Recover the amino acids of this structure.
């Protein structure tokens, strides 16, 4: 399958992305913007959800109307910590989705992802999965997360981020060419510490005020 990257260039998404990039944004504002962007990005990521048609009654007449066929079969998997910032906004749009968490941290020397937590719904093999993390930098955490979700045999997997580096996209699709990436922007590249340039800094630290 051909590697696929979908850049979501909606004006509202791009405007809010510019805001979160800025150093002057407070922790509270950063948190609120990530939540808002989670909802906006979810519209695009769920564009291909299947519909079913049911008979309903309006105040005027009965009619056949479309409803989601698989809303309750979705799992949003957050890569901790920073994925939580997008998760809340997505759940406002799809409140019945199940939630999973993967705890990963980046070894400061090797930049490899180290797992410390994994919890997903027990019936995930019957569900479609959306993995969320604001940053796709080296790609190591994203690859590790998809590895784990493939181990539990989800029906399908998508990956959603705010920013992606070309190096991360290349590494991700070398390992998982079947998994599409949805992102708001593809930046210039990585610096010597593995951070995205121009990027927006450490999303987890900015989200929780821990820097």
């Amino acid at each position: 399958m051909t590697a696929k990257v979908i850049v979501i260039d909606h004006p509202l998404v791009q405007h809010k992305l510019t805001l979160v990039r800025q150093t002057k944004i407070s922790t509270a504002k950063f948190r609120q913007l990530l939540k808002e962007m989670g909802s906006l990005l979810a519209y695009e990521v769920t564009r291909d959800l299947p519909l079913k048609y049911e008979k309903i009654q309006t105040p005027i007449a009965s009619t056949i109307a479309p409803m989601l066929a698989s809303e309750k079969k979705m799992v949003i998997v957050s890569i901790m910590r920073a994925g939580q910032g997008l998760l809340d906004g997505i759940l406002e749009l799809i409140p019945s989705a199940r939630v999973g968490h993967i705890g990963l941290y980046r070894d400061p020397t090797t930049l490899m992802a180290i797992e410390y937590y994994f919890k997903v719904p027990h019936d995930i093999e019957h569900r479609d999965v959306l993995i969320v993390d604001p940053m796709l930098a080296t790609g190591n955490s994203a690859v590790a997360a998809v590895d784990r979700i493939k181990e539990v045999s989800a029906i399908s997997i998508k990956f959603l981020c705010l920013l992606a580096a070309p190096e991360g996209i290349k590494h991700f699709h070398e390992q998982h060419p079947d998994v599409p990436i949805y992102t708001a922007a593809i930046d210039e590249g990585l610096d010597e510490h593995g951070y995205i340039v121009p990027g927006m800094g450490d999303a987890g630290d900015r989200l929780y005020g821990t820097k």
Summary: Residues 125 and 154 are 4 Å apart (CA to CA). The helical segments are 11-21, 27-45, 84-93, 140-151, 166-175, 203-208. The first strand starts at residue 5 and ends at 7.
